[in-house]
Amino acid sequence: MTEAAAPLLRITAMTKRFPGTLALDGVDLVVERATIHGLVGENGAGKSTLLKVLAGDYKPTSGRIEIDGEEIEIATPRRAHELGIGIVYQELSLLTNLSVAHNISLGAEPTSTLAIDERAIAQNAARALGRLGVTTIDPAQKVGKIPLAERQLVEIAKVLTLRQPRILIFDEPTAALGQADVDRLFRIVEGLRDEGVAIIFVSHRYREVLRICSRATVLRNGGVVGEVACASTSVEQLVELTLGQKVAAAFHRTWRSEERGEPLLELAGVHVGARVRGVDLVVRRGEIVSVCGLLGSGQNQLARAIAGDAPDVSGSLRVKGAELVPRSPRHALRHGIALITENRQEEGLFPDMPVRSNISISSLPRIVVAPLLRVINARRERRLAREVAKATGIAPRALSRRIRVLSGGNQQKSLLARWLMRRAEVLVLIEPTRGVDVGAKLEIYRELEELARRGAAVLVVSTDTPETMALSDVIAVLYHGRVTAVFDPRAVTEQDLLLAMQGVSKPVEAAV
Amino acid sequence: MSAIRRRLFAKSYIDTWFLLLMTAALLVAFRVVQPGWLNGHTVQNLVIQNTPLALVAMAMTFSIISRYIDLSPGSMIALSGVVIGLVYTAQGSLALAIAAGVGTAIGAGLLNGFLVAGLGLNAIMVTLAAFIWARGLSIGANQGNPIDVGSGLGTVVNASWHGLTLTAPVVIGAYVGGWLLLSRTKMGRYTYAMGGDPTAARRAGINTALYTILIFLLMGAMIGVSAVITVGQLGSAQPTAGLGLELDAIIAVVIGGTRLAGGEGVVGRTALGVIFLSILNSGLLNLGLTDAYFQLYRGLALLAVLSVQIIVRRVTDEEERRKREQEQLSAALATA
Amino acid sequence: MSVDAGTVTGRRAPERAQVGDLLRRLAETLGIVAIAGALLLAFGLTSSQFLLSGNIRNIFVQISVVGVAAIGETLVMLAGGLDLSVGSVVLLSEVICADLTATHHLPLSVALLAALGAAGGIGLLNGVLVAVIGIEPILATLGTLLVAAGLAKLILGLRYLQVDHPVFNDLAVTNVLFNLPIMVAVMLGLYVVVSIAMRVTPFGRMVYAVGGNRRAARLSGLSLVGVTIAVYVVAGVLSGIAGFLNVAQIGLVSQNDGMGLEFQAIIAALVGGLSVTSGGVGRVERTLLGALIVGMMTNYQTIKGIDPAFQQAFLGGLLLAAVLADRLLRGRQ
Q: Is the CB of B200 less than 8 angstroms away from the CB of A95?
């Protein structure tokens, strides 16, 4: 009787500690050869840290990795390549200034004497693309000039040129793909599996995970909370595991506006570059409007355009009745429109300034002693900061700390506080709870509701459908840059929403 | 044929055309003001005097593509020259002296490369420090006085054959070599990769530390050769050699069309930039202007060219971005 | 962590981090003072001349010009830029001051106004080139370096301008404040004013914000163009003041004045703890400490008879040490 072969990949008690956070806490993972193993969890649950450890980007604090029964250490990305580990990243790591063929062979260029063998590179590219069944990409074209879906295929081709790919990891591969591209991707992935590769499939889209994976591991707050057999698991069960509580016990609106508030924001035929083609939308005082769509549908561009952070905006935009196209964030703010982006580290926070200063930075005229004497009134600043901190659930003790030591949830709340102090009337938020733990998420939802109750108009861009369903008064679905559906979340199911996001829509509801 | 024509007039070559135009304009203007300028003799001088600039600018192209700025070349040329002088004075052997000088330059390159790539220090600050300490050492070595090296080296460096100096093929060789290095080898490819996206480069398994150090070593080699030529030209090692050279080199690269943001550039463009700058400097000098006007005009010319470059770029970038978005939109609609 | 009270599920190790963060910040502030103190001690013990009151006075006088210029450079670097034109602007200011008073016998106030106006004008040019046109600061200020130097030398011609004005003499000679001349008091006063301004004015906050996170600053409604131009203009004016003080100190204006001053200013700022790895981190008052440390080292080396050229070499090494320390303290960004 033959002994059972060791699994291709076994991770035992993987722990990764950073100053300030425990990103991975004793994670165990087993992936057999010729299987597709799913990895799910909220943002910040530890998925990307785990991937970075496997990729050789991070060194684990403790834990063991075994490939084919042999314990190994992945010290550098190069080592990961040698071991046959390939990762197709979410934020594609292609070089836009190089051609497709050069990217495919990057890091492993064949050389004849000293020079790079260009013919071999072209052959590699042709072979890799051919293996994927891709005929529409010109290998000589610069990556910067091809669309996102094709770039992802190039990334996959790149990973296939590994000398001997044994473990392939796909990080959110379908985030920006249309259905046809997703199907093609799945065919490719399943083909790779059938060749004996062990595949780890990381995704937020539980339906897809359940469709393509045989097993799935659920991470929460850096630890494993469960491993399921996909054939016998439902989306609801997965959601329950990742949330840590029954879906029904999560957020519910406790207040909704009784009458229709005045429209604070009216969009008619708004175009933003080539991404947003003719959007009509109304956001009223006291309302939370969500704009939903698959990544790449144009909702981010729309949000930024409203807040003055996008070029090429045309069409009719009215703010409180006045015709206005915000030309810059400063301009938008002068008319009461504030923006919180999905990327607080790069676009929201001032990491080395205290929380209080982060909050008051947009309200400097409010906290000076006198308009003529431009000196900051420290007492007034403290008082105002305390007020908004209380309203947003930030402990007063945190106000003097540098904001970089706060948790993601509190950082996000600080950004809310910033706009609260500024008395923004139209608040635009992109992925407001990304990278925020569950408790803070609930607090943020409650705060948004409170903001609406106090008379603000809130526009949320989110790809998190349960969040959208629970939070909004109105949901507008964007597909290929157009509004294809408008829902009252109380009247539809999450499935309707997901289908609409996929481009399968019910007829548009009566004008809001 | 029309494909070539299309490429020649492509938007990305606007920079180059503009530069060629400016160079031609300069030539004409200077000839008009000083008709005797630019005979065979002055061209020879032009080439010899600007050889160090040309060599350093070639290496600087690599640095800038990979997103570093190197401020040390000028001071390092002086230091290497001083080392040549000191060793020659002490040992009497020109060969040994040259070896020591070139070795110094390469050693400094290694040091800077290690500090930047190995320790992760800011390149501008590290090379600024070298700019300062190398100049200090050069001046201090002989109390600020030049060090004589005899005439042996001078005859080689200043030799000319039918009006062509020895340094000309050196420069041409360096640029051809640089072009091959940049376009055909791993080092060149990885230079573009590191400059385009350092994270992606690391993820692809590229040993960025190694290749960064190689770029510094290349600069060191160019500095070494330049030092030999400079010392040979004057017959002595000057502690004030190379003053302002690094900034001229950076200007040559940037005016040639390579962006300071990194990720793209070719040595051919730098060559154009060097030619433009040499003509500008030489012409202005030849006008017999006082130091004051010289600096003033150089400064204004520099700012003007940079401004025009950037504004033109902004316009073409916008158009390109818009075009790409349109293409993406039609592609998306086609597959919808 | 009480900040996260109300978290349903959550696990983090932040308490340790906050203490660590506090300790690190304490180390930064005290560290430089400690280094300055240690140097004072070491130099005092190994040289009989060092601690003489006349020598201490010398140190302060010698760092006055760089000190004032370094204030401006610190501000520019805090906002994420770089100013290489400082030395030339100092020269320009000197030349205008000297020329208008010594050659044209205009009242000093007019000369000062003209000098500061010109200096501020160069600063404005810097700001516009960087913020409006979008040229990299290194290249833009290099260009204005040439322009300002050219203008200065145009006015100066080939001569040395000797200035002998009672006010200038006063600045350099008359002692107020611990046996230190007025010009030192001016420098210290400027440090006090600017340091306080950076802490309590909106402008100060905006500079830190723009330097700390440019994109966030823009989205927060700050005017990047406005702040950038302002910071370069202030640096220009401060360089102008530095030039004025230099005339007072030396009494003679020559072609090579101010050369390399920008590098000394940068070193003073970095030794004082300005960070190149993290934008928007650093304090103006610490640059004064940096200037003092550099000044003490230079003075000590001069006392010990070390060749000025080697002193310069040492300065380069000091710059490396400062950058290394910054890296160790703040990690790779």
A: yes
Q: Enumerate the residues of chain C whose CB falls inside 8 A of the CB of residue A410.
A: 3-4
Q: Is residue B3 part of a domain?
A: no
- Predicted confidence (pLDDT) per residue in C176-186, tens digit: 777 788 899 99
* Beta strand segments in chain B, E: 147-148, 160-161, 164-165, 236-237
Q: On the CB side of C251, how many CA atoms lie within 13 Å of its CA? A: 9
Instruction: Give the nearest partner residue to B125 out of C140, C313, C319, using CB atoms.
Output: C319
Buried residues in C179-204 as b, exposed as e (16+ CB within 10 A) = ebbbbbbbbbebbeebbebbbbbbbb
Cα distance between residue C171 and residue C177, in whole Å: 13
The letter for the amino acid at B324 is R
Judged by CB atoms within 8 Å, which residues 137-156 of C form the interface with B?
A: 138-140, 142-154, 156
Closest by Cα among C296, C287, C57 to C172: C57
Can you read off the two tokens belonging to residue A344? 């607080």
Residue of chain A minimizing CA distance to B205: A78
The vertex-B299 CA angle with B295 and B302, nearest 5°, equals 140
A138: Cβ–Cβ under 8 A, 6 or more apart, which residues? A100
Could you identify the residue written with the tokens 């209080």? A356
ipTM of this complex prediction, to 2 decimal places: 0.85
* Residue C56, min C-alpha distance to chain B (Å): 25
- Comparing CB atoms, the residue among A77, A94, A95 nearest residue B205 is A77
Cα angle, residue C54 at apex, residues C53 and C59 outer, rounded to 5°: 95
Give the distance from residue B196's alpha carbon to the nearest chain A alpha carbon, in angstroms: 6
Residues of A in contact with C205 (CB under 8 A): 357, 360-361, 364, 376
Residue B298, domain member (yes or no): no
Nearest-angstrom CA–CA distance, A209 and A215: 9
Residues of chain A with C-beta less than 8 angstroms from the C-beta of B329: 274-275, 277, 481
Cβ contacts of A275 on chain B, cutoff 8 Å: 325, 329
Calpha distance C61→B209 (Å, rounded): 44
Per-residue pLDDT band at B1 (split at 50, 70, 90): low
Q: Hey, which chains touch C, using 3+ CB pairs under 8 Å?
A: A, B
Sign of CA dihedral B84, B87, B93, B95: negative
If one counts the domains in chain B, the total is 1
pLDDT in tens, B85-110: 999 888 888 889 999 999 999 999 99
Residue B177 lies in a domain: yes
* C-beta of residue C236 within 8 angstroms of C-beta of residue C262: no
Query: Which domains, and CATH codes, for chain C?
Result: 35-330 (1.10.3470)
- The mean pLDDT of C235-240, rounded to a whole number, is 97
| pLDDT reported for residue C15 | 45
Nearest CB among C147, C277, C307 relative to B300 is that of: C147
pLDDT at A176: 63
In a domain? residue B289:
no
Q: What is the DSSP letter of A7?
A: P
- Name the residue facing B189 among A57, A109, A481 (closest C-beta): A109
Contacting residues for A371 by C-beta, under 8 A, at least 6 apart: A365
Closest approach of chain A CAs to the CA of C276, in angstroms? 13
Residues in chain B closer than 8 A to A111 (CB atoms): 185-186
pLDDT per 10-residue tile (average), chain A, 512 residues: 70 84 87 92 78 89 90 88 85 84 85 82 87 82 80 83 81 73 85 89 84 91 88 80 57 84 91 84 94 81 92 88 90 94 90 94 89 85 94 90 87 94 94 78 89 93 84 90 88 81 57 40
Domain that holds residue B145: 51-276
Q: Can you tell me the distance from the alpha carbon of A126 to that of A107, in angstroms, rounded to the nearest whole number?
A: 17
Q: Does B176 touch chain A (CB under 8 A)?
A: no
State the pLDDT at residue A508: 47
Q: Would an 8 Å CB–CB cutoff place C122 in contact with chain B?
A: no
